[in-house]
Design a protein that fits this description.
- This protein is mainly beta.
- It folds into two domains: 29 residues, no CATH class; 92 residues, TCL1/MTCP1 (Proto-oncogene - Oncogene Product P14tcl1, Beta Barrel).
- It is built from one helix and eleven strands.
Length: 134
């Protein structure tokens, strides 16, 4: 079995993340992030953009509870759709704002719990879940 090493996030440039390494000199497997984007705004069909101009693709999952999988993906601004699908507008908020560090609030005052936020193999992913009391 590979030996596992836990190293503080200071090595990854994020003071509050956890870096998991496998074996000797191999690339990180997964980094759990606790520093989340402050704001995500819709910029095109299935595309959100954060305050640092990173783009995030989203996938809606409804398994009895509405969840959204966001994946940070570099998309040149010229490749983003200029229009937003009516279906996207009716099911997804046009913006999320970070609220109290562990959840987001949308313009309809609904709260979304951050289920996980990781960076795996260089790709940042975040899963949000609509909270029951929203």
């Amino acid at each position: 079995m590979d030996d596992l090493k836990l190293i503080s996030g200071a090595l990854s440039g994020s003071p509050s993340s956890l870096l998991l390494l496998r074996g000797h000199g191999r690339a990180p497997v997964q980094v759990h992030l606790t520093l989340h984007p402050k704001c995500l705004r819709i910029r095109g069909l299935s595309v959100y953009e954060d305050e640092k101009h990173h783009t995030w693709l989203h996938l809606v999952m409804d398994t009895g509870v509405l969840q959204v999988q966001l994946c940070q993906e570099a998309i040149p601004s010229g490749h983003m759709g200029l229009t937003i699908s009516p279906l996207t507008l009716s099911t997804m908020p046009w913006m999320w704002t970070l609220h109290s560090g562990s959840k987001y609030v949308d313009p309809m005052s609904r709260f979304w719990r951050i289920m996980h936020h990781v960076k795996e193999n260089g790709v940042e992913e975040m899963k949000l879940e609509l909270m029951d009391d929203s």
